[in-house]
Every structure is written in C-alpha cells, then in structure tokens.
C-alpha cells in the first residue's frame, strides 16, 4: 500500500525508532545524571503486545524499517521473544538495534536467526579510563571485545561516538584508524542537550564543521561517499581502508529536510521530531479502548502537523530539551 505517513512538506516517514525501555546499565554524562532519572513504572511502559500491535499499525501505514532503542534494549526482560514476533510483522523489511554493547553478546545467534544483522554500538572512547569517565561504568573491555565478535559473526556494525571537548577528542583519529582493517562504520555525533539535567549544561562547541576540519588536517586524502537521501550522516572513507566514517550534525540539524523518522517512546509518547514535544500518547489511546482505525487516524494526524525542522520543533517544545535521551529513545 502507499505510504500514508506523508507530512505537509512531502516527506514520507517510513522509519520508526521504537524505544522498548527507558532503563540503562550505563550513566553516560550526555544522557542522564550519575544518580539516574525517575524511571517509568513497569505498568506505565508499553507492553510487548502493545508494541507489536502498534508496530503492525505503523507498518500498515508505510513504515518498513524499525530501529529498537532504549535506554538499553537488552536490559528489558522478554526482549528476545518480542523481537522474534516483531520480525514476522507484515511489511517490515528491516529491524536494526542500537545498544551499548554490554548485553548483546549472548544474543548474537538468536538475532542472526531472526534476520537482524545490523547493530549500532554506542562507544565514545577507545580508552578504558575515558570510557569510564563518560559512561561512569568500568566495562570497556567487554564492549570492545563484543564489537569484534559481532563482526566475526557477520553483523554489520556501526559505532556511534558523541564528540565533546575535554572528553574524547583524542579518540577521533584512533576511531578512524579502526576502520583501516575492519569493515566498521564509525559515526561522530555532535553532542545534544538531552541529558535529563535542569538544562543548564554547557554544550560542546565541536560541531560537524570542526570535527570535519580536525579529521581533514590528519589525512591527505578523504573520499566522500554517496549518501542516501534520508541519511543523517555525511559519510567518507580513507582510500584503502576497509571501513568508513561519517559525521552526524545532530545538534546543527542540517538533515531535517529529508528526515524520514518517527519515534515512539517506551511509555507510548509519539514524536515526529526528536526536538519536539510529544504529539500524542498511543499507550493512553490504546488503553482507553480506541479502535485500530482511531489509532491510525491519530498517527496520521500527528504526521500532518509535523514541523519543517528541528529548530521549529524545539520552539514548539518551549525549550524543554533537557529530557533524558534514555526517555526519548534517541
């Protein structure tokens, strides 16, 4: 069927980011305070049955790709049976997962069996000490070893690195060097203001231009790659290297004009933009006894009022951009 999720600017939304939990076993400084956040009560989370039903609705409306996010998806009990059922959803062509890499190791065989072969690992440093400072957890060796197990088992792996001054600038070039002999895709992200604090944090001034200039100064030749229209990253590779790297202007938001994403939080909040306020709560609508047709109408209505870009969406949220990324789902 034709995609019914088309906003007033003609952009088709065919990519759902589905958060299955707001909980995480890390405490990364850019995501939540060290003491954590007020996590949702179990009864306030969408059940797996509700997620399956809503995923089916989204796919009937034209979604063909779902990325599973959190929090950390693998900390939620029952995640693997859910993914197995999700993989049989009609119209769903691809499931991908974003993880911190601590718990996915033991699930690799099951994921491959389901046809889930693309994994994004959040990794902000190749130094154990810096890793611990950023995540507030001493688990670097486990995560790092797990990346190569994924590669050895045939997974397509992307590493997501949030760049910030006084945190991990010295890791940028080592990350690129990691692509010399390994078919990894490394993505450098601008820091975003979603860390669950009071909003008073000072953001890094390492924007995508500065990251690019830093990399260019270290390499004589960099080959631009062709990017998909809906890509959030501008991608490159060093000639002769097995892998590639990209830069995501996540705070500068230069990719808004082709964004094809819609987000559903673990508690049912529907967002048509990461920077915008929730457009509806599908959990509440479902639990009120709404029909599938009413749920579809709500989703289509939310998409129809989608803002032109992340800056307009942020303005509509009245500046409430300090919500934890663990709650938003990334």
TrEMBL record:
Molecular functions (GO terms): 4 iron, 4 sulfur cluster binding; cyclic pyranopterin monophosphate synthase activity; GTP 3',8'-cyclase activity; GTP binding; metal ion binding
Protein name (record): GTP 3',8-cyclase
Listed cofactors: [4Fe-4S] cluster
Reactions catalysed: GTP + AH2 + S-adenosyl-L-methionine = (8S)-3',8-cyclo-7,8-dihydroguanosine 5'-triphosphate + 5'-deoxyadenosine + L-methionine + A + H(+)
E.C. no: 4.1.99.22
NCBIfam families in alphabetical order: moaA
Lineage: Bacteria, Pseudomonadati, Bacteroidota, Sphingobacteriia, Sphingobacteriales
InterPro entries: Aldolase_TIM, Elp3/MiaA/NifB-like_rSAM, MoaA, MoaA-like, MoaA_NifB_PqqE_Fe-S-bd_CS, MoaA_twitch, MoCo_biosynth_MoaA/MoaC, rSAM
Listed GO biological process terms: Mo-molybdopterin cofactor biosynthetic process
Pfam families reported in the protein's UniProt record: Mob_synth_C (PF06463), Radical_SAM (PF04055)
Organism: Mucilaginibacter aquatilis
Keyword annotations: 4Fe-4S, GTP-binding, Iron, Iron-sulfur, Lyase, Metal-binding, Molybdenum cofactor biosynthesis, Nucleotide-binding, S-adenosyl-L-methionine
Span of domain Radical SAM core: 8-225
EC main group: lyase
